[in-house]
Amino acid sequence: MQADHRQEPPAEFEFRGSAAEYFGIWIVNLLLSLLTFGIYSAWAKVRTKKYFYQNTFVAGRSFDYHATGLQILIGRIIVIAGIVAYTILGAIPLVNLAMLLGLVFLIPYLLVRSLRFQARMSSWSNVRFDFQGNWGTAAANYFLYPFLAALTIYTTWPFVTRSVQRFHVNGHTFGTTKMSFDSPIGPFYKAALAAMAWGIGTIVIATVVVGVNANISGMLSELSHDPEDIAAMIDVIMILLLFFVAAIPATIIYRAMVRNTVYNYTILGDGHRFYSDVSALRLLWISVSNAVVVAMTLGLMLPWAHVRRVRYLADHTLFIPAGPLDDFVGDISAQVSAIGDAYGDIEGFDIGIAV
Description:
Shape: globular
Largest sheet: 10 strands, antiparallel, barrel
Low-confidence stretches: 337-355
Structural class: alpha+beta
Distance between the termini: 32 Å
Number of strands: 10
Number of helices: 11
Strand content: 5-15%
Order of helices and strands: EHHEEHHEEHHEEHHEEHHEH
Oligomer: single chain
Helix content: 55-70%
Strand order of the largest sheet: 1-2-3-4-5-6-7-8-9-10
């Protein structure tokens, strides 16, 4: 087919679900999971994913999720059986050492299988995704590169993040069409510096608060029969507050900025692109306010919080076709018709790895 260079308008991502609808699914999932001592949680995961996939649209076409609860349950049973075996046999020193070495090979394998399972169980416009990453690259990204970054006191962590994102994106295909990602290192360091600025700023403020806290601690110590316990309790509270006010927000800021970079430098096939303009501070506000509302309602507003976050991310994501979208989808559908049987033999290793 000859290339058609007509300008195609960007296709917006759109989430059409609602908090009320998802609450009904969520509460039933929760109750049945409790009643079955967690067994139903595999089916609950499938119901949740189906709801969010099927309510996410691009150019009027929705995503879909094709896994079954039984597939996920079998995968979880295999993983749990492995953990139990490791716990029992780990009491034998030589066996424990051998199993620790074995984990270096097993964990990257499970990561790849999980990513492949998630991809192959996902589709858009009836065309499935796939993941073709390999064990060696996974081991390098999740074991070797973080270790090397630690040797540099994590000053090279942005390189690790970029490499992990390359592994994820470059390993994926849409049908038989490859996805590719590469970008300068600058945006990753910019994200890291923004996260550090938040963390350092918070620590400076916390230092001032600690000075005030010292006076309060002294006053409480005079009133207490056990001043050391009072001081220790205040120290623990301060550490926890610092974690929630500095570390978690810094992580959210970093991930939001990295998300924009990954989407904006990802290419599908011959020039089809994506665009993301998520605001790190806006996403931080959504995350913090969601957490407050969920805590104040003892978890009952969790569906609302989840839908609110998903809708924001969808509203700030675009797909930019390089040509007519119908021609692109038609070509992809024709190309994958011969490999449909390849999706039958799949283990249900779904261990929650996010792409």
